[in-house]
Amino acid sequence: MYLTNRFFWILGAIMALFALAYPFGWLFPMAQIALGAGAALLLADVLLLYLRKPQIACERRLSTVFSLSDPNEVIIAVENQGNIYFNLTITDELPPQFQQRDFEIHCELPPGQPYLAKHVLRPLSRGVYDFGNINVFASTRLGLAERKLVFKQPQEVAVYPSIIQMKQYELRAMQHIAHETGIKKMRRIGHSYEFEQIKNYVEGDDYRSVNWKASSRRATLMVNQYEDERSQQVYCIIDKSRVMKMPFEGLSLMDYAINTVLAISNIILKKQDKAGLLTFSDVIGATLKAERDSSQLKRILESLYREKERPGEANYELLYEGVRRLIGMRSLLLLFTNFESSYALERALPTLRRLNRSHLLVVVFFENTEIRKLASEDVQKTADIYRQTVARQFLQDKKEMVIKLRQYGIQAVLTRPEDLTLNTINKYLELKSRGLI
Hints:
Immunoglobulin-like, 4 domains, six-stranded mixed β-sheet
């Protein structure tokens, strides 16, 4: 049994009444009556709660899989199956990864009425999350005591890379006319050699695509329509060394990259290309040969779910050997990594140039948004000027890294972590529309 705040407020008022009875004796009988009435109400409240167990049903409803970094809905359904009015306080034993120890739901439940309590959880790491019991503290209208009801509902939920974001970007990228913010519609220069169909000429069609034989048969202009080449190999390569452990808004750079790889792999497969995966650090991690079958996305998802950051430095020589063994033909390589200094880039550059000779390499690395905030803050003291100078020099170094990579013919994308998926998809669509893959 738990005594409520209302009980202690009433008890405090009765004690104050007894204290006032010392100088004002006529208050003593009133204090005695108040004490007796309070005791009787408490006894009645306890009997209502404990004479018979409250007929309350409670269950937790949630998906068996959560999406990393997205809001995932959890529903707690309670129902009063008895004939007594209850006030309920519901506490759910959330997984320790959330570090949320003050979660409570308050509701009023008339007899025979159900209630659905909805809340959202945003997981920031992959893995298994364990939910515990649901604790319901029930009180009557008197509200002097509470009875704790424990509903044993342990549940396990696996947190996978963001499936919600994958679906959102699929809808944007696969539409022929992309008006959604962010997805660019790239103008094709020339066309690929993959024939699709012959169609009637409309104003604006390339006159070089006129099919004269079909035009003569139909007595009207007909043009050949081409589509993007298919069955091209695209590999996503994730650096899982210590430089990818940097956190931004609660999520590590590696988790941003993992969410992006899942989204871009889905689009690659929808575009009829082959998607593959390779992870590395001081050792080679997951390796998936590029395929286009229906189960490839699931294999990529399972591989990404199991990946963990490693404390060592990235071994680019090992990456080169892994790429040479795994990938036989020319492919598009999307390398997700991070360079925090020009020295780090200089060490990796010889290997990146060798990779770019055999494949089309795109290096995707991150802008430090915290330093950008520091560089744009108002200056108050002389020390702030020094800090801003260093921050701006750091940002300039990142831009110079992009220029250096492009000087050697390596495609480069410098992006904020939150814009990673969008910029990577745009780069893939741009390269595909230009026929560079």
